[in-house]
Amino acid sequence: MQEPKAAQPTARLTQEYAARVPAPVEQVLFEVRRMIVGQDRLLERLAVALLAGGHVLLEGVPGLAKTATVRALAQAVGGTFGRIQFTPDLVPADLIGTRMYNPRRAEFTTELGPVFCNLLLADEVNRAPAKVQSALLEVMQEHQVTIGKQSYPVSEPFLVLATQNPIEADGTYPLPEAQIDRFMLKVLVGYPSLEEEVVVVERMIGPPIEIQQVISLDQLREMQASVRAVYVDPAVITYAANLTAATRTPATSGLSEFAGAIAYGASPRASIHLVAAARALAFIRGRGYVLGHDVRDVAPEVLRHRIVLSYDGIADEVSTEAIIARVLENQALPRIDLAERHAS
Question: Whole-prediction pTM value?
Fold first, then answer.
């Protein structure tokens, strides 16, 4: 089934969202691309997460400009940037802060940690032990940290971008499923092409590139509010839920060949994140309504870290990418008629 020809907005919808074509988003991406070569999908997904208010897990080998990308994004939106290098000897206080005793005043004071920023880069997050990972869990979910008996909210907007290195296993602590599920997107960062790598070297040996602030945090908050107002048809919500449910019931969803390879499928949080990310992607594409194509395009990043393979699946070298590809192939895009629904 294909997207309907009638899935065009009515004249009223067109006028309503004409002023919402996200020129500020284009300005942010253009500014970041002055430093970052290629990686268009990464930059678009970071913009999706920023607008949807979700966290991102970046996976790629060292040297692919993950840190530089996050820093440039923070500078372009005028937000504060924090970076934590996760190591096995890290403790929760190094992350969230701690209470310190002042002997002169005979009282305790609170020293807040580096998580109090707008964009937090958790570098090699899987190198920290479980205590530190659980400390990060609260701030990701609740946007606050608890020190002693006092809770401290972090700055808004708040976004965690965590990286992990896929080629090393020594000295690492794999993220538990409860925490990895908190990330809206998992983005795989690949090598640049030969032409892009030549440009990378030319830029790095040339004059330093200064990233300019092109929007304010207030503008970003306004765009986030606009994203939440993007229309999502019930048929699109059903489509997102079907994609998620198919990973839990492969035998009855046309994925019988993967029935023994999947130990656990994606939770309902995946459906929520599918719709939220698709909303942001539709906004970036200049639309005030979500199409099935938007959900399908963000599905790999939303689902790939939420499918847990069984021992048989790991032994047979089944990949979550292959499972997601079959899910998308088997689930037909929704047929919707926005003009008719908004006329009623």
Answer: 0.84
